[in-house]
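We emphasize that the prediction below concerns an isolated chain of 148 residues; any contacts that depend on oligomerization or on bound cofactors are therefore not represented. The input was used exactly as deposited, without trimming of termini.
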Amino acid sequence: MSIYSLAQASTSTTSGNCAADVASPTASGVRPRLMEYGLFLGAATVSIFSLRRMSALGTRTTPTALIAEDVGDEALAGIKLVDQAVAFSVEPTEFTTKLRAIGLPATIGVGVIWTFPRGITIPQQLSVGIIHDGTNAASHFHNVVCDI
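Result of the prediction step, given as a token string:
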């Protein structure tokens, strides 16, 4: 197994919408595991977020492949594509049950790093994402680490 990661910024602010997700969009049999998800505010706005599994990907307009932490590992493409999106033309469908949740004060740079020692498996053609559960900052940053 190899470790892949990615950091991105998001400006999505609508309550109830997905701010970002990490997905396994191919039907290749590869089942990545989410090992860590970091979220930090880029604006001083009280914010509430939750981490949830998605039951449908939606239409992702900005997917970006995670990059290998070991330069000797292969780039993610085709059969092993795992990506993170921060914009959607059609929202992913999320489950109402939350894996993690946090309320953040109106302080730039405040955030959280959730770790999953055994990893959260991301099923094929599904994702795990951050959902706005209340008023949220105009910008926030997402860091993802997956074992593939």
